[in-house]
Structures are given as C-alpha cells and as structure tokens.
C-alpha cells in the first residue's frame, strides 16, 4: 500500500514525470508550448510520444486514445493499441509524435448540428498539451480538442480554451494600465463542487425510469423526506464511506485533488469538492470525476445518480462552479488587496464581473439549460431561474458609497478615494452565505450555482469568461484613453458601472415570490424557466456579437450548438415520456388491476359467507381504484397522442414538449402516485421512494 503522496498523480504524465523522462531541450520546448502556447515541432512531439509510451507501458497500459468531449456531454475515446509489427513476426510497443498530436476518430455519429455533412464525416482530434495525459483502464488517454476539417469546434474544450484566451487578452490590457509589468498571463480557475445521489443497485435495476432516464418518473413521497435535515453533514454510512475512500484513491491516482466529501441535504445525497485549478483542467477533471464516481459506485453495489432531479419533492443536485481570475504569478484578481492601488484594481475586476453578469444574464442561464436542470431552477430549491448576484453586506456598502460619493459606513466612517484609500478587510467567514443566490461572491471568488450536476462545466465557464472579457475590453478602451487623470477616469468608470448594473445585485432570498415579481417587473431581469426559452438567448444578436468578436464561437458554431441543445432536450424528454407509457401500461396498471381484482374476489367471497354486512371500506376502495385505473388509462392515452405530435424542426418540437408533453407527463404521474398510496405494498411493481432514499 503506497502512501497518498506516492499515490497522487501516479497515473499522470505530469511535470514531474516529464522532467524525469524528457531531455532538457525537449522538456523546455514542451513547457513553452504548455505555458505560452508556442507551436510544437514534430521532433519534439516524437520525443514526447516515445517517453509517454515507455512510461505508459511500464504502468500497465497497452492502448492509447485521444480523449475528447463531443457535444453530447459525455467524453469519448477510441482505443488503439501500441502494438506495431516488427520483423520476424514480433511486435513492439510504439507511439509516434504524429499519433500524439492528431487523430482521426471515425466520428460520424457525434452530433455536429449541421456543421459537418456526413460525406465529410471525419473530424480530427488535436492534442491539448495544457492538460496532462493519464492512464485509465490500461489506456493512455491524451486530452484533445475535436474539430471538423473546416476548423469548426465540434467539442466543448475548444471554445473553453478560446474563452480563456479572450479573457487573458483583455485582462492583460487592464493589468498593464495598473503597471503590472511582470505579469505575462491571466488564467481563469474553477473549483466545481459536485453533488450526487447514491442508491442501491439491486433496487435501481428494478426501475426502468432510473435505467432509461436517470430519474424517477413516478413515486409517491415517502413519509420521511429531508425535513429533519438530519442527513446534512451527518455521519457517513459505512457503505458510503467505503465508496468515498475508493473514489478518493482513484481520483488521486489521476491527479485530481478530491478534497472534501460530505453528506448533502437530501437523504442519500452527497457532495465532492476538488481543490480548484485552471478552468480547462478543472473541466477535464470534472468529466473524469463523474465517470469514476459511476464506476466505483458499481463496485460497491451502488449506482451514482448524477441527474439534476432524481426524486420529486427532494432537493436535486447541482454543481457549484467556483470561479476566479489569477495572474501567472498566482495573484488572485478577485481578492481585495492590502494597498490602495491593489484595491482599485480589485474594484475594476469586480465591477467588470457585475457588468458581465448583468449584460449576459441570458447567456449564463442558457449555459446551464437542460431538461434535467429545468426541474431544479425555479422549482423552489437550489438557485432560482433568475440570474442575480450576491456580494454580501460589506462589499455592497462599499459599492453604494462609491456610487453615491458618500462616506463608507464601515468601522470608521470616511469617504473612499479610489487609488488613495485601502478598502476595509472583508472578513471572509462572516460574509453571509446566501444559499439561494445564483452567482455569489465568496470572499475571493464567485460561485455560480446554477450548473446542473450532470452537465459539463465548460459551457458555463465559456460564457462567464466571454462576458467578463467583453466588460474588460470596454473598460480598457476607456482607461487607455483617459488622458492625464487616470484616477478620476477610473472613479467615473467604476461609479457609472455600478449605477448601470446594480439591478443585478440582490442580497435577499431568491425563493421569495416577491423577488420574482421585483426582479422581472421592476428590475427587468430575465426569468427563463425552461430550456427552450433559455436556448433562444444564444441567438440574440448582442450575444452572438460578443461571442464572435472574441473568437469564442463562429456564427455557424453557435447555430450548431443551438440545434444540438434543442435536439438533446427533445430526445431526453421523449425518452422519459415513452418510459412513462411503458411503465404505466406494463407495470402500474397491471399491478393496480391485480390488487383491485383480488379485493373484489375476496369481497365476493365474504359477501357469500356473511351477506348482511355493508363492506363499506372495501367497496369504496374498489370504486376509487377502478376510477383511478380509468383515469390513468385516459392520461396515458393523452400522453401517447402528445408524443405523436412531437413534429417539425428542433425548435417546434422543443416548444411542443414544453407546452404539451410535460404537463401530460405530470398529470399521469399524479394519478399513478395516488394509486401507489392506495395499493397494498406487496403489489407495487418497483421499489418506492422510501426504499430508494433510505435503502443504502
Ligand atoms: P466555500 O467554503 O466558500 O465553499 P471552499 O474553500 O470550501 O469555499 O471552496 C469551495 C470550492 O471552491 C472548492 O472546490 C475550492 O477549490 C474552490 N475555490 C477556492 N478558492 C478558489 C478560487 N480562487 N478560484 C476558484 N475556485 C476556488
Ligand atoms: Mg461552496
């Protein structure tokens, strides 16, 4: 048994391994590529590939794959073995620089949203040297981007890398104005906290809804849910503990900094928080984390549910995307500093984020839209569907003071002069943790809480990076042309930005009905309740302009993403609806009818034996159940008809689902759940909410 430091990163071709196995020249060329994006030449690639192959084979690998993130949301890999024929019918293990740098997966069945006609179906993958290669199941995995031959991005990594570059370009302009001569680069960081559910695998296998859709489509509430809050941070059960221990080990081997694990609010819900890292790597790591969670769960007789809403009436799962910007010198740009000058710089970046979130609230909401997440956002739990920002009391007071040129009512009452005064120290731990805020400042980072548990974090980060890059670009345009008085120019810029965008700031309770009204009617904020609504945002001309200006997406790429997202939504709900029909007709109705039939038979026997009694309860129950059976039959018929009407282009289909299919599903579910509460437990065809939620 090796120690944790030995274990950590043991399956990663990381800096330590590179240093040990590459010649000094090769190592430094590669480092230049990683750090500065310099082009890699083939001789270096060949040397790196040879070292990688040798290392991978020593560590048990037999195959290699270009590992990438197509637009389906999962990761994809196609394995090739290292085996190369050699003379005398021998084989050698070989891997060339060319194999490392590019690959051509036969990718015709990955969605491209019209970007790639099938006759030119082959996209290509290109090595992303900034994310280390790793070994997973005897396979050397090389993180790659996936593009069409026309150069259009067909994956989630490419736009993320582009958005990081956009933010770097604009943030550097601002830093230069503040005289940071030593800074070479600005990077964005992310620490995604991942929520998940664990259920017993034997029970899972008895529910078609869980198998086909990842969530329960039926199920009456259990007598006990999460109301006692006794699960939150409670003692971890032995079976779950064993799962977490193995999960940690597997993640550590891959160099993933799994740091804290605890129980969440709902029964059988848990959370894993990693230590933050560069967004691109955080995104790769989060994809791997989700995959490994599922794999390890199986080994423990469990199933890991990553759906946003596996159970109705119980909190769903999200991902809290902690986000910040930092220089290559490790200075966090969202951290208030110790000098007046650092503080002024902090305020510029802070108000840039405020402006970005306000102006691109539609894109942020869009970036987390999915059929699953629709059940969470706006459903009186997690964050609401309206994007707003929480800054905490102290920082809000500072901004108010700047906005109105009035004294800051802090510990000592005085006027704040930008560039001359030091900001008060914000005590990180006293910032009230506003759990309902979609976008909260938590001391030196923002926490974007709307991301769905099953989603890749890349789209959310692309939109945050892009929006902030645009705000910084506009700021730099102003500040670079201040003329003499930089300080007053800066003051006006910050003050105007606060005035224009303070409507997005909200420190109150986001679940409140009054807030929904104020946000939409008074402040004019967007309330996008469903995926089809949210997806329209990506087509809004201002948004397209921003994304293309910063070269994050081309117009064709935006259009293709729109089509894929709408299609995904349609497919997801359609599968759910079909699963409901199947379960209703083949499991639920037969069970209720059998129970009702048995009741009737026994009632007849009793009536024959003792004719002078009323048998009131039994008679009533048979009546109610028979009524429900007819009601269920009608509802399932209506759902079937509605499914048939899913027609037209992706947009028409998605809106039909939003307006018709979903409410029919809900109606059917209501009746079936009612039948469940009236049917004897041993007749019910699959495990109940109580079984699932308390069965681990
Ligand atoms: P909190 O108590 O506010 O939730 P934690 O320190 O527990 O903060 O961190 C929560 C998550 O935020 C972790 O995944 C952590 O790595 C991440 N995080 C912390 N600092 C930063 C930062 N500067 N940038 C991005 N993510 C961060
Ligand atoms: Mg947190």
Please outline the helices and strands.
Layout: H1 4-7, H2 15-21, H3 24-36, H4 42-58, E1 63-67, E2 79-81, E3 83-86, E4 90-93, H5 97-101, E5 102-103, E6 124-127, E7 134-136, E8 139-147, H6 157-177, E9 186-200, H7 201-204, H8 208-213, H9 238-253, E10 258-263, E11 269-274, E12 277-278, H10 279-299, E13 302-305, E14 318-327, H11 340-359, H12 361-367, H13 371-374, E15 389-390, H14 393-404, E16 408-409, E17 413-414, E18 439-441, E19 446-452, H15 458-479, H16 486-501, H17 513-522, H18 531-535, H19 541-549, H20 555-609, H21 616-644, H22 650-678, H23 689-693
Parallel strand pairs: 1-8, 15-18
Antiparallel strand pairs: 1-2, 3-4, 5-6, 6-8, 7-8, 9-11, 9-12, 9-13, 9-14, 10-11, 14-19, 16-17, 18-19
Helix pairs in contact: 3-4, 6-10, 6-15, 9-10, 11-15, 11-16, 14-16, 20-21, 20-22, 21-22
The chain binds adenosine-5'-diphosphate and magnesium ion (MG).
Residues 189-191, 193, 273-276, 322-324, 332, 442, 444-445 line the site of adenosine-5'-diphosphate.
Describe it:
The structure is a single chain. The chain is an alpha+beta fold and 696 residues long. 48% of the residues lie in helices and 13% in strands. Strands 9, 10, 11, 12, 13, 14, 15, 18 and 19 form a nine-stranded mixed sheet that branches. Strands 1, 2, 5, 6, 7 and 8 form a six-stranded mixed sheet that branches. It has a two-stranded antiparallel ribbon with strand order 3-4. Strand 16 (408-409) and strand 17 form a beta hairpin. Helix 9 (238-253) crosses helix 10 (279-299). The longest helix has 55 residues, at 555-609. The two termini are 28 Å apart. Adenosine-5'-diphosphate (ADP) is lined by residues 189-191, 193, 273-276, 322-324, 332, 442, 444-445.
């Amino acid at each position: 048994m090796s120690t944790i430091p030995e274990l950590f990163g043991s399956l990663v071709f990381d800096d330590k391994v590179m240093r040990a196995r590459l010649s000094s020249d090769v190592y430094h060329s590669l480092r230049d590529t990683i750090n500065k994006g310099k082009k890699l030449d083939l001789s270096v690639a060949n040397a790196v590939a040879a070292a990688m192959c040798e290392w991978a084979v020593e560590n048990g690998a037999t195959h290699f794959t270009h590992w990438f993130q197509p637009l389906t949301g999962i990761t994809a890999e196609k394995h090739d073995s290292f085996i190369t024929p050699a003379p005398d019918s021998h084989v050698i293990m070989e891997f060339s620089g060319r194999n490392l740098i590019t690959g051509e997966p036969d990718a015709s069945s990955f969605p491209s949203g019209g970007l790639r006609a099938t006759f030119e179906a082959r996209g290509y993958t290109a090595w992303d040297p900034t994310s280390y290669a790793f070994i997973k199941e005897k396979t050397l995995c090389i993180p790659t981007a996936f593009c069409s031959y026309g150069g259009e991005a067909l994956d989630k990594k490419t736009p993320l890398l582009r958005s990081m570059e956009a933010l770097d370009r604009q943030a550097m302009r601002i830093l230069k104005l503040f005289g940071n001569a030593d800074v070479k680069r600005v990077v964005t960081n992310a620490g995604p906290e991942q929520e998940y559910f664990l259920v017993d695998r034997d029970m899972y296998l008895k529910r078609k809804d869980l198998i086909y859709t990842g969530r329960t489509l039926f199920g009456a509430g259990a007598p006990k849910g999460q109301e006692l809050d006794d699960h939150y941070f409670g003692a971890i059960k032995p079976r779950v503990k064993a799962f977490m221990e193995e999960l940690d080990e597997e993640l550590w081997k891959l160099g993933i900094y799994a740091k804290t694990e605890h129980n969440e609010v709902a029964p059988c819900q848990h959370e894993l928080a990693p230590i933050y890292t560069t967004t691109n790597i955080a995104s790769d790591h989060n994809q791997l984390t989700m995959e490994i969670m599922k794999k390890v769960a199986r080994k423990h007789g469990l199933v890991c549910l990553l759906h946003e809403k596996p159970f109705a009436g119980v909190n769903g799962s999200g991902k809290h995307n902690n986000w910040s910007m930092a220089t290559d010198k490790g200075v966090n740009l969202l951290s208030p500093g110790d000098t007046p000058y650092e503080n002024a710089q902090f305020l510029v970046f802070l108000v840039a984020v405020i402006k970005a979130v306000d102006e691109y609230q539609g894109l942020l909401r869009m970036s987390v839209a999915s059929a699953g997440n629709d059940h969470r956002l706006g459903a009186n739990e997690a964050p609401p569907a309206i994007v707003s920002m929480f800054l905490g009391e102290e920082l809000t007071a500072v901004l108010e003071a700047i906005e109105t040129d009035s004294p800051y009512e802090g510990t000592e009452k005085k006027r704040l002069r930008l560039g001359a005064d030091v900001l008060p120290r914000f005590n990180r731990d006293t910032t009230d943790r506003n759990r309902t805020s979609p976008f909260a400042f938590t001391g030196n980072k923002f926490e974007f809480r709307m991301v769905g548990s099953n989603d890749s974090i890349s789209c959310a980060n692309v939109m945050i990076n892009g929006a902030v890059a645009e705000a910084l670009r506009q700021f730099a345009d102003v500040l670079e042309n201040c003329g003499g008085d930089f300080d007053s120019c800066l003051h006006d810029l910050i003050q105007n930005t606060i005035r224009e965008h303070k409507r997005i700031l909200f420190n109150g309770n986001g679940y409140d009905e009054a807030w929904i009204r104020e946000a939409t009617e008074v402040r004019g904020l967007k309330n996008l309740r469903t995926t089809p609504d949210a997806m329209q945002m990506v087509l809004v001309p201002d948004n397209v302009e921003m994304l293309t200006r910063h070269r994050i997406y081309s117009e064709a790429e935006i259009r293709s993403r729109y089509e894929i997202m709408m299609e995904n939504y349609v497919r997801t709900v359609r599968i759910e609806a079909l699963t409901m029909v199947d379960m209703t007709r083949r499991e639920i109705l037969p069970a209720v009818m059998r129970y009702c039939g048995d009741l009737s038979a026994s009632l007849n026997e009793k009536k024959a034996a003792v004719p002078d009694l009323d048998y009131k309860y039994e008679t009533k129950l048979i009546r109610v159940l028979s009524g429900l059976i007819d009601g269920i039959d009608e509802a399932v018929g209506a759902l079937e008809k509605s499914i048939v009407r899913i027609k037209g282009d992706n947009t028409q289909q998605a809106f039909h689902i939003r307006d018709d299919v979903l409410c029919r599903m809900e109606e059917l579910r209501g009746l079936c759940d009612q039948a469940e509460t009236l049917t004897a437990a041993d007749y019910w065809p699959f495990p109940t909410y109580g079984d699932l939620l308390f069965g681990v």
